[in-house]
Amino acid sequence: MTKPTTYPYTAWVLQPSFKPKEVTFVKHEEDWSGEDYGCKSESGRVYRRVAIHATKTAAITFGNAEVRSMQLALDKKQESLNKKREALTKAAQ
User: What count of other Cβ atoms lies within 10 Å of the Cβ of residue 84?
Assistant: First the structure.
């Protein structure tokens, strides 16, 4: 989402449980080098720019992409564990 020109404004984020939530943002935040980082919500939490979405649908689409990425990482880890298990089984024979 692009940086808004006026505050406050509302947008959508995903909670840690991946449930979409509408949040009101009140201030722009920069990182230590002065680069755009994100926005601060009314509650004081700072959200990264990539985690802020204009619509609920956009937040859900982003969440689905994150879940797919997590699943790919899990699949890769499972494959690695299976290879290690096979190596141990072979060594035990």
Answer: 10
